[in-house]
Amino acid sequence: MKAHGQDLSYVLIELVDKKGNIISHNDRKIQISHKGTGKIIGSGNASPTDMASFGSLQPMLFKGRAMVIVRSGYEPGEMKLTVSAGGVQPATIALKTK
User: Which of 22, 28, 32, 53 could form a disulfide with 64 if both were Cys (CB 3.0 to 4.6 A apart)?
Assistant: First the structure.
């Protein structure tokens, strides 16, 4: 992402088993957090019946999936995005801003 505060990245979140298969029958609540440059501006899951806020950092999975949208900051650097849920190991990715 460019460090001008306008770039967006859409990060797909999937709950997968040890073989990488999506666990589509598990709609558990997840926790999204970040450290570093940039900002989380939204999350969602595409469920037609979920009326939770798109600004929530605790969305439910829908058919094993959700999405988070992040915006670049104004300084070059790195954002570490972490997703966690009960019963599974947290996952972290790094998004770089130049």
Answer: 22
**How far is Cα 2 from Cα 18, in angstroms, rounded to an integer?**
34
Would you call 21 helix, strand, or coil by DSSP?
coil
pTM score: 0.89
Average pLDDT, the chain: 94
Q: How far is residue 36 from each of residues 25, 49, 93, measured CA to CA in Å?
A: 33, 33, 12
pLDDT at residue 28 greater than cutoff 90: yes
Within a 10 A sphere around the Cβ of 74, how many other Cβ atoms?
Answer: 12
Distances (CA, A) of 69 to 4, 21, 32, 50: 16, 23, 11, 18
